[in-house]
Write a structure and sequence with these properties.
Keywords: Acyltransferase, Cytoplasm, Transferase. Belongs to the acetyltransferase family. RimI subfamily. Pfam families: Acetyltransf_1, TsaD. GO terms for molecular function: N-acetyltransferase activity. The protein is built from 11 helices and 17 strands. It is α/β, with parallel strands linked by helices. The mean pLDDT is about 95.
Length: about 400
């Protein structure tokens, strides 16, 4: 098996061509230039030097995060583009797994740390078990790579506490060592060491070798499916989320141009989500009330209700992930009530999945009463519906 491997998750850019039993080529640079300048020329140079036709590779292994947001996006975009063009599968190798795998055969705790700023690191906790890798009837041992704690973003103080609890020697590697070495030295109560320079940064050859193991275990995906794993939001995303949380909530009538945003919240919220066309059909019905909640100019929630015989049946109500528990659902219901009173509607109806206790508690808080159960009403998955109503 032949794999093209890419790692641009940190300051180091690295490209390799790896087979089952050897590394054919590896090109690694950790010097000033950005990955957008270096990655494609590096791949081209490796292909030329090894007389490699990229169409001959079996898969593309890529360091899939965590790490630098920009670096991960460049690496993933490069891998996805090549995968789509060559019709090759992608192998998503967690960055911290790749760092730890460099210390092959080590029975101590292996702890890669990547600087995540603000006294936090991206890390995981690993070891190799020689005992688990003994081959029966021979003296040969193939140490088993064990993930004791999957990769995570964590405060350095919390990591130190966890490592002390293992009460085993620890080997550190990664760019976080330079930043947090003094904190580690001050807090650790177990023996520890730092990996030498030739194994303390990302290497594509390791991503390729581990990628082959993952591929043979069935852990691969299409180029379209691949997404980098950031573990936490970027600063820009955190700032935007904060603006959205603190922005004033505006409730207004829904418009046709809102249908796409509503359909996206539907997809995130319900297993039986409505399509954009279904939302548009509801909007075009004159016997409906369709309301949209906005925060910072972005759709934050919505409500769709049908009017008939002096009653209003709430067909859908949802709030976007990340904006829940901010009173948006309450404000949508309040405006629905005002609209219904203007239209001389005297009663609100709705149904809710029996297992959705959070929603049932919310409706009860809004003065809805439970009237009964409709057996097998919901599909995908099948479930009973609790019928609720409220007199206006």
């Amino acid at each position: 098996m032949k794999v093209l491997a890419i790692d641009s998750s940190g300051l180091t850019a690295s490209v390799a061509v790896v087979e089952d039993s050897r590394t054919i080529a590896e090109y690694t640079v950790d010097y000033k230039k950005t990955h957008s300048q270096t990655l494609l020329p590096m791949i081209d140079e490796v292909a030329k030097m090894t007389e490699l036709e990229l169409s001959d590779i079996d898969a593309i292994a890529v360091s899939g995060g965590p790490g630098s947001f920009t670096g991960l996006r460049i690496g993933s975009a490069t891998a996805k583009g090549l995968g789509l063009a060559l019709d090759k599968p992608l192998i998503h190798v967690p960055t911290v797994d790749g760092l730890a795998y460099q210390v092959y055969g080590c029975g101590d705790i292996i702890c890669p740390i990547m600087d995540a700023r603000r006294n936090q690191v991206y890390t995981g906790i690993y070891t190799f078990s020689a005992k688990a890798g003994k081959k029966e009837g021979t003296r040969e041992v193939e140490p088993v790579f064990q993930v004791l704690r999957m990769q995570m973003a964590i405060a350095v103080e919390d990591l130190i506490r966890r490592l002390n609890n293992y009460n085993r020697p620890v080997v550190f590697l990664g760019d976080g060592v330079l930043v947090y070495r003094e904190m580690l030295s001050a807090g650790l109560k177990v023996p520890y060491s730092f990996a030498p320079s030739y194994m303390n940064r990302q290497r594509a050859a390791v991503i390729g070798a581990l990628g082959i193991r993952y591929y043979k275990a069935g852990k691969y995906e299409t180029a379209m499916e691949h997404q980098p794993e950031y573990l936490r939001q970027s600063q820009a995303e955190r700032e935007r989320a904060q603006r959205e949380r603190t922005a004033k909530t505006l409730i207004r009538e829904m418009k046709a141009e809102d249908a796409a945003a509503v359909a996206e919240i539907e997809y995130q919220t319900f297993p039986d989500h409505w399509s954009q066309n279904a939302v548009l059909d509801t909007l075009s019905n004159p016997q409906t009330v369709c309301l949209l909640a906005e925060k910072a100019g972005k759709a934050a929630g919505y409500l769709l209700a049908y009017l008939a015989g002096g009653e209003a049946e709430i067909a859908r109500i949802a709030v976007s992930e990340g904006l829940k528990r901010q009173g948006i659902g309450k404000k949508l219901l309040q405006l629905l009530e005002e609209t219904c009173k203007e239209k001389q509607v005297g009663r609100l109806l709705l149904d809710v999945r029996e297992s959705n206790r959070e929603a049932r508690a919310f409706y009860q808080k809004m003065a809805f009463q439970e009237d009964g159960v409709r057996k097998g009403f919901y599909q995908s998955p099948a479930e009973d519906a609790v019928l609720m109503s409220r007199e206006l």
